Amino acid sequence: MSSNLATKLREGTKKSHTMAENVGFIKCFLKGTVEKNSYRKLVGNLYFVYSAMEEEMERHRNHPILSKIYYPELNRKASLEQDLAYYYGNNWQEEVAPTPAGEAYVQRIREVSETAPELLVGHSYTRYLGDLSGGQILKGIAQRGMNLTDGGTAFYEFKDIADEKAFKAKYRQAMDELPIDDATADRIVQEANDAFGLNMKMFMELEGSLIKAIGQMLFNTLTRRRTRGSTELATAE
Question: Is pTM, for the whole model, over 0.85?
Answer without folding.
Answer: yes
